[in-house]
Amino acid sequence: MPDLILSGVSKSFGSTRAVETTDLTFAEGQLTALLGPSGCGKTTLLRMLAGLENPTRGTIRLGHEDITDLPAHKRKFGMVFQSFALFPHYTVRENVAYSLIIGGTAKPEALEKAQTLLDTVQLSSFGDRRIGELSGGQRQRVAIARALAQEPKVFLLDEPMSALDAKLREEMQVELRLLQQRLGITTIVVTHDQREAMTMADTIVVMSNGRVEQVAPPKQIYHRPANSFVADFIGKANFFDGVYSDGSVQIGKLALDISANFAAGSPVRLAIRPESICLVTEPGQNCIDAEISFVRDLGPVKEYHLRSDIGPMIAEHAGTDGMDLMAGEKTLVHLPADTLRVYPQTAA
Amino acid sequence: MRAGGTIFMSLAALLLAMPIVVVCAAALNGGRSMFFPPRDPTLARFGEFFVSEPVWTNALTNSIIVATGAATLAVLIAWPVAYLLWSTGSKLSKALAGVGSLPFAVPPIVIGVGLGFFWSFTWGLGHLWSGVISHAVLLMALPLVTISIGLQSIDRSHLDAAATMGATEQVAFRTVVLPQTVPYTISGFFFVLVLSFNEFIVIFFVSASAYSTVTLQIFNSLRNGYTPTMAVAAITFLTVSILVFAAVARWGDLPRLMGADQTRK
Amino acid sequence: MTVSENIQIAAERSPALVRRISPKTVLYAALSTLVVVFCIVPFILVIVISFGRKVDGAGWVWDLTFDNYQRFFVGVLWPDEVTFLYLQQLGNSFYFAVIASVLAVLTALPFTLLLTRLKRSAQAIWLVFILASLSMSEVFIVMGWDILLSNNSGLPKLFQVTGFTQWLKDVGWFQTLRDIGLANPRNVKFKPSGFATILTMSYLVWPYAVILLYPAFSRLDPSLAEAARTMGANRWTVIRTVTLPAIRLPLMGTTLLLFVFLLGSYVSVSVFATPDKQTTAVAIYSNIRGSNLDAPFGSAQAVILLISASVCLCFGHLLNSKAEAR
After folding, report:
1. Which of B153, B189, C282, C299 has its CA 20 to 30 A from that of A44?
2. Which pLDDT belongs to residue C8?
3. Contact between B96 and C203 using a beta-carbon 8 Å cutoff
4. Partner-chain residue, chosen from C127, C143, C305, that has the shortest CB–CB distance to B226
5. Which residue range forms the structural domain that includes residue A339?
6. Which residues of B touch C140 (CB under 8 A)?
7. How far apart are the C-alpha atoms of B4 and B6, rounded to whole Å?
8. Distance from CA of A150 to the nearest CA of B (A)
9. Do A22 and A82 belong together in one domain?
């Protein structure tokens, strides 16, 4: 199974641009997550891959084959819909066998194959049920089995977990990832949930406003976000705006040392993860005064909401940090230079 | 307030049922005249209506032919119009749906007169088939509405799902659209059936006294005084209506068809 | 679909190209023909014939004369003599239709409100009952009321047997009933009368009123009324300040539709109305199928009825789209 390649693809609806010109390669056998806030164009991108929307410009290739103008029913990429789109007038088994039956496979044979797939998704005894009798999690398994029945070259999932409750969601993420690895099928998942993307994906594509912001493995997305949007969207981050000069960033009267180079006098934005900020007692490099405004003890972690001269920030410690600080107390915070990410300030 | 509401609804139901009950009870009269309460109760009038009196059996046969024919025809015309309206939403399809509903929206006597003229120029006046078409035209608006409601209830992602599984537009229509709209189509069919059965003024103008349906026969007999056999007709019609609507309520979603809010139970 | 649209657009731009005829185009053409022939042509015929001329003993001929309209508005002998007989009939049509439709809507209003508060399954049962009564033919309903109101059986008989008539005489209300024509010297008498006509017409459209009000009422958000109640409004204030404003437009729209429907009602008027209160619908009937045999004049009356109805319908449509927009 070859790679799926988008080159110069864009999509407009009337005068609104849903997807800006995009080049992407979805590697064979890998799971890619399209991650972004709602309305960022990720679903439109997925629908173009499925053949449900025609790109306004650009080409989509599967290996060497140009499939840009191939309609959805000829592309036959298996797709799981947000609502699952299971047919209420068919039984579970008939739903799974749908693509085989309309594709010309003899009915008994198709139903037998469907049963095998239901076994795979652990719904062996549910074949004769109606869709209305299934729980959300069961519906999702049926939708996955149905999409895989036609042995698609590419497997697409549009927000597959959004209809499930939180606990089930985490279980299904692991299960889906294991299934995908076992089948080795090229898979693309659209999601707005970063935990979901981090759990399942080999590669994450972060999108916003129809643009691709970063393409990287999950770890890199988290630790080395390409810009302040990604830093903000993935995980939590504290931001400070300042001006760069000579190895440090001036924020108000204070200066913080950083380990990156910029043109002198250029406005920059600093980002730091809450878990990188330490509450300390000894002054040192990049240590500033702060006052605790609120303490949020969540058990495994403790969040300190702080006020400082460079602005408010949130620090996160392990729940067992042994500190016994209360709101209203003064403390020193340390912002380690190597954990401070620096981005040029965007016009917005 | 709660008790007051129940009393009000019961009173309304009573008033609504009163003339119907009176007509139905009159069917049991033994003599030739209508009395209420019935005198000398008998079921002989049912035999007259269904079996022995050709005037009534012919009228009943005509009514059944016109109603089933009109219902079939109306559904057959309304289906493509509703489908075009739903799948394209084009101006032309909207115009088609609007014009198709016109005969139902104007006073029935006007379309009755119009269709009477129309058939007198097209050699249809007084034929049963023209009655069938006339009722189909008059009542087409009903299946148009029910089928449109049915089509709107189809989740568009079902069509997308079918496409990603290899279904062409025709296959998706056959396997997804058609099965999901069957209850709505049947509802539309039965609405036309029942209303055509009971319709009077249009069939009066297009039949030109060449044949009569049950409602026409009753109207013709209005001047000569009522006979209990007419009341049997009323019972028959009422029974058909109740059976049909009960079936729609049982196998379809009647409150939704009548426009109730989907989200509330 | 997009592809065929493109083809169509291309074809429209360059008429020289041979237009590819898709099945959809054929379908559109067939449906348009069908709908125009059966839904438009009858109306056009009515309009055209209304300009025709009656020929004594030979039916009527095509013409372009306004005589029929003149006759309708000022009488056939105008300008020597003016008669408003036909305008008066139209007035009667309006009179019966307005009172009957308003009455039906006003009584259907609380009923529908109560109906939508019931459980969905109970609503379905009520709807079956209402739809069954809605579909009952006008002839059956007229028959039912005719028996109920007739002098030898039904209510007048019941009144006499139970002594209600005597009681009415005793308290002196009987004379009032006689004064408004609802009683003869011996007993109450309900037909023929405007009362019986309006009662039957109202009854006829009452189920329609419920069915038409039902969607709007069942979409009323009960939390609005609840919010008003938490702010101290009593039930009546809630209905006056929250419920009624929310349903004002569907209420008016429904009244209009029923009114249009009743404008053309024939059987109830012909059976129950007194001879001096006959309506345009009855006149149309007697001109086209009845004794007069004056199709052009009947058509002219039908056109006027159609215009009255269209004006009301347009007004109703306007109200509806205003309601939808909110």
Report:
1. B153
2. 44
3. no
4. C143
5. 236-344
6. 20, 23, 198, 215, 218, 233-234, 237-238
7. 5
8. 7
9. yes
Question: Is C266 domain-assigned?
Answer: yes
Domain membership of residue C55 (yes or no) is no
Hey, is the C-beta of B108 within 8 angstroms of any chain C C-beta?
yes
The answer to whether position B8 is within a domain reads no
Q: What is the mean pLDDT of chain C?
A: 80
**Per the domain annotation, does C156 fall within a domain?**
no
Q: Which residues of chain B have pLDDT under 50?
A: 263-265
- The confidence score (pLDDT) of residue C3 equals 42
* The total number of structural domains that make up chain C: 2
Amino acid type, C204: L
Contact A329, A292 (CB under 8 A): yes
Cβ-based interface (< 8 Å): residues of B facing A: 155, 157-158, 160-168, 171, 175-176, 179-180
Q: Hey, are the CB atoms on A85 and B179 less than 8 Å from each other?
A: no
Per-residue tens of pLDDT for chain A, all 348 residues: 588 999 999 999 888 889 999 999 999 999 999 999 988 899 999 999 999 999 999 999 998 899 999 888 888 898 999 988 899 888 999 999 999 998 888 999 999 999 999 998 889 999 898 888 898 889 999 999 999 998 898 999 999 988 888 888 888 899 999 999 999 999 999 999 888 999 999 999 999 999 999 999 999 999 888 888 998 888 888 999 999 888 888 888 888 888 877 888 888 999 999 999 988 888 888 899 999 999 998 888 899 999 998 999 999 988 887 777 888 889 999 999 888 888 888 654
- The CATH number of whichever domain residue A157 belongs to comes to 3.40.50.300
B19, B109, B249 ranked by CB distance to C144: nearest: B19
Among A47, A67, A89, A113, most B C-beta atoms within 10 A, so best to mutate, is A89
Backbone φ/ψ region at A209: left (φ over 0), alpha (ψ -120 to 50), beta:
left
Q: Confirm whether B50 is domain-assigned.
A: no
Q: What is the pLDDT of residues C227-263, one digit of tens each?
A: 777 777 777 887 778 778 778 877 887 888 888 888 8
| pLDDT tens digit sequence for A173-226 | 999 999 999 999 999 999 998 889 999 999 999 999 999 999 999 999 998 888
Residue C16 reports pLDDT greater than 60: no
For the four alpha carbons of C285, C289, C291 and C293, in that order, the dihedral sign comes to: positive
Q: Is A264 found in the same domain as A138?
A: no
Q: Does residue C138 sit in the same domain as residue C272?
A: yes
State how far the Cα of C269 lies from the Cα of C258, in Å rounded to an integer: 16
Same domain flag for A208 and A337:
no
Q: What is the distance in angstroms between the Cα of B259 and the nearest Cα belonging to chain A? A: 22
Taking chain C, what is the end-to-end CA distance rounded to the nearest angstrom? 33
Q: Between chains, do C147 and B19 touch, taking CB under 8 Å as contact?
A: yes
- Domain tally for chain A? 2
In a domain? residue B114: yes
Same domain as C143, residue C11: no
Domain that holds residue C28: 2-49
Listed residues A198, A231, A264: the one ending a domain: A231
Please check whether residue A104 touches B, CB under 8 A. Answer: no
**What CA–CA distance (Å, rounded) separates C51 from C69?**
8
Nearest to B166 among A81, A85, A150 (CB): A150
Half-sphere exposure of A11 (CA within 13 A, CB side): 26
User: Which residue in B36, B237, B258 is closest to C136 by CB distance?
Assistant: B237
Nearest CB among A73, A78, A149 relative to B167 is that of A73
The whole-angstrom separation of Cα A208 and Cα A24 is: 15
Sort A95 into a burial class: Cβ within 10 Å, 0-12 / 13-18 / 19+: buried
Same domain, A202 and A287: no
Residues of A in contact with B180 (CB under 8 A): 87-89
pLDDT of residue C2: 41
E strand or H helix at C313? helix C295-325
When the pLDDT of each residue in chain A is averaged and rounded to a whole number, the result is 89
Between helix C194-218 and helix C138-149 the angle, nearest 10°, is 130
pLDDT in tens, A100-117: 998 888 999 999 999 999
Q: Which of A180, A203, A231 is the last residue of a domain?
A: A231
User: For position C17, what pLDDT does the model report?
Assistant: 41
Residue in chain C closest to B233 (alpha carbons) equals C140
Buried b (16+ CB within 10 A) or exposed e, C109-129: bebbbbbbeeeeeebbebbbb
